[in-house]
Amino acid sequence: MKKLIVCSSAVGLAALLTGCVSPLGPSGSIVGTIYTDVSGAGGATSNTGSSKKGEACSTGIIGVATGDSSIQAACANGGITKIHHVDYHVMSVLGVYAKTTTTVYGE
Q1: Is the pLDDT at 29 greater than 70, yes or no?
Q2: 3-class SS at 51?
Q3: For a Cys-Cys bond, which of 18, 25, 44, 104 suits 85, CB 3.0-4.6 Å?
Q4: What is the pTM for the complete model shown?
């Protein structure tokens, strides 16, 4: 019985220390345990010109995530029909708060 209590306590402690919310997006693959603030490219196309910019964000707080940080939402927010390139920005604090921003440039 004592071993069961010790193992259960260890698993519970590990779950608490790993956090509840993880950042998304290609840049989200690099995650700091305490703090993460990374940006990266999501891709580019052969379309020329990038006079318009659209952004879409999603956030997560203590295991509850909301928002739409998809490329489609960013295009709609910027009125973009031809994508030139996509960037991501991911920020996370202690796995308790996370925010992902997708920025699309194009025409």
Answers
A1: no
A2: coil
A3: 44
A4: 0.71
Q: How many Å apart are CA 52 and CA 82, to the nearest integer?
A: 10
Which segments of the chain does DSSP mark as H helices, in order?
Answer: 2-18, 71-78
Question: What pLDDT score was predicted for residue 28?
Answer: 47
**Residue 74 neighbours by CB under 8 Å, 6+ apart:** 54, 55, 56, 80, 86, 102, 103, 104
Q: Tell me which residue of 101, 85, 84, 78 sits closest to 24, measured CA to CA.
A: 101
Structure tokens at 90: 């991911």
Q: How far apart are CA 8 and CA 2, in angstroms?
A: 10
Percent of the chain past pLDDT 90, that is, above it, reads 44
